[in-house]
């Protein structure tokens, strides 16, 4: 195999992106080590579902314990390092800003310092976020040259970490690339994010019934791509001679309501929305079954306005062919959650 003997270390291997990139690298013949926090056994379901739990060497690493990182990277000597470990739920970042800044900024600094001292020849991919932009441009799409104006502690943490990656690249010559990741979804998404909340609850409603799901702002919109497509593109960025920052996006905007419609249709419903604002509800036209209601509980006082990205640089440098649209992602997520529920796997 082309990559026999090549070794990767993935921080955050039990999350959506870490697990998908691990599967992609294993498919290409890499040896994959993955950092995961001891005691997070409940998070192993993604690796299990992908059928790679026994193929990834799990290493106990806490990003805030620098010597654990030193130990892992000096003993395993990876060629490529992927850093996905983060506190990633934007809404929570207002309630726990200290831990968001600690994990996302200091944690990234610990990885970079370890690389500088102990593994300067390794290459790094860091998962940054569209939240670094904060504000949509007056016209057009966001790209690697757009203004960086984060509006929440999470966005600030990702921008600080992305800037650290740039400093270590420019000052120490470390091959370190940041992916500025717009929203990307898959059946492996955690249930607190809106797309998975929708697919999980539609499968519940379809197969077990119960009360409608509660959602927040239905007119909120995102540039939703397919996590599996991005996971194939991410390793390509480390094959390039020069390290750069890359926008990962689709260039298309979809509202929460549109995503819900795609998902509900995929679940076999004919969704009809009625009412406005907090009084808005959704039911199935054929059976009258209540599918969703709006709850103020999920409104965000400072929600990020829709941000849409231009992935031209990624396409040009890596040949990345683009990402499936939100409808295709919704279909895949609903199919997976229906299957899980039929198989009795409802706690993932
Ligand atoms: O799914 P979300 O929670 O994702 P959000 O906040 O956009 O963050 C994700 O994408 C970022 C990149 O753009 C990442 F950096 C971040 O780590 C994460 O992956 O919310 C999406 C939208 C928001 O506008 C939210 O207000 O959906 C709206 N929404 C409406 N109802 C809801 C709900 N969000 C959640 N989580 N739950 C709801 O019931």
Number of helical runs?
10
Shape: globular
The first-to-last residue Cα distance is 34 Å
Structural class: alpha/beta
CATH superfamily of the largest domain: NAD(P)-binding Rossmann-like Domain
| Level-1 CATH class name of the largest domain | Alpha Beta
Show unreliable segments: none
**SSE succession:** EHEHEHEHEHEEHEEEHEEHEEEHH
Rg, please? Answer: 20 Å
* Mean pLDDT over the residues: 96
Estimate the strand proportion: 15-25%
Give the domain tally.
2
The CATH architecture classification of the largest domain is 3-Layer(aba) Sandwich
Q: Order the strands across the largest sheet as they lie in space.
A: 3-2-1-4-5-6-11
| Strand element count | 15
Cofactors, ions, other ligands? ligand G4F
- What's the main sheet like? 7 strands, parallel
Portion of residues within helices:
25-40%
Can you tag this structure with a few keywords?
348 residues; alpha/beta; Rossmann fold; UDP-galactose 4-epimerase, domain 1; 2 domains; 7-stranded parallel β-sheet; 38% helix; binds ligand G4F
Ordered list of secondary-structure elements with their pairings:
Layout: E1 7-11, H1 16-27, E2 31-36, H2 45-49, E3 57-60, H3 66-76, E4 80-83, H4 97-118, E5 123-129, H5 153-172, E6 175-181, E7 184-185, H6 194-208, E8 213-215, E9 221-222, E10 225-226, H7 227-237, E11 245-248, E12 254-255, H8 256-266, E13 271-274, E14 281-284, E15 290-294, H9 312-318, H10 326-342
The chain binds ligand G4F.
Residues 88, 90, 129-131, 182-183, 192-194, 197, 215-217, 220, 222, 256, 298, 300, 303 line the site of ligand G4F.
């Amino acid at each position: 195999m082309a990559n026999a003997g090549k070794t990767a270390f993935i921080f955050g291997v039990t999350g959506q992106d870490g697990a998908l990139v691990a599967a992609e690298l294993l498919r290409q013949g890499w040896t994959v080590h993955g950092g995961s926090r001891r005691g997070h056994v409940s998070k192993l379901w993604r690796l299990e579902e992908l059928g790679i739990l026994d193929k990834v060497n799990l290493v106990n690493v806490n990003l805030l314990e620098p010597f654990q990182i030193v130990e892992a990277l000096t003993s395993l000597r990876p060629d490529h390092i992927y850093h996905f470990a983060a506190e990633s739920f934007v809404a929570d970042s207002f309630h726990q800003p200290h831990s968001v800044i600690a994990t996302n900024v200091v944690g990234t600094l610990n990885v970079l310092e370890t690389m500088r001292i102990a593994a300067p020849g390794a290459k790094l991919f860091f998962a940054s976020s569209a939240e670094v932009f904060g504000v949509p441009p007056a016209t057009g799409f966001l790209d690697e040259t757009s203004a960086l104006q984060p509006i929440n502690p999470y966005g600030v943490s990702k921008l600080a970490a992305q800037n650290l990656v740039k400093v270590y690249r420019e000052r120490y010559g470390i091959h370190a690339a940041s992916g500025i990741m717009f929203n990307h979804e898959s059946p492996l998404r955690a249930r607190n994010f809106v797309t998975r909340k929708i697919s999980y609850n539609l499968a519940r409603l379809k197969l077990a019934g119960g009360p409608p799901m509660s959602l927040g702002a239905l007119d909120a919109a995102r540039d939703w791509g397919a996590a599996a497509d991005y996971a194939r593109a991410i390793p390509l960025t480390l094959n390039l001679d020069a390290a750069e920052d890359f926008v990962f996006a689709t260039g298309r905007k979809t509202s929460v309501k549109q995503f819900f419609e795609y998902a509900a249709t995929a679940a076999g419903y004919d969704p009809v929305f009625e009412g406005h604002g907090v009084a808005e509800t959704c039911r199935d036209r054929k059976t009258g079954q209540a599918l969703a209601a709006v709850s103020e509980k999920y409104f965000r006082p400072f929600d990020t306005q829709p941000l849409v990205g231009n992935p031209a640089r990624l396409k040009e440098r890596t040949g990345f062919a683009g990402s499936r649209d939100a409808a295709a992602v919704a279909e895949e997520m609903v199919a997976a959650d229906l299957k899980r529920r039929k198989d009795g796997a409802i706690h993932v």
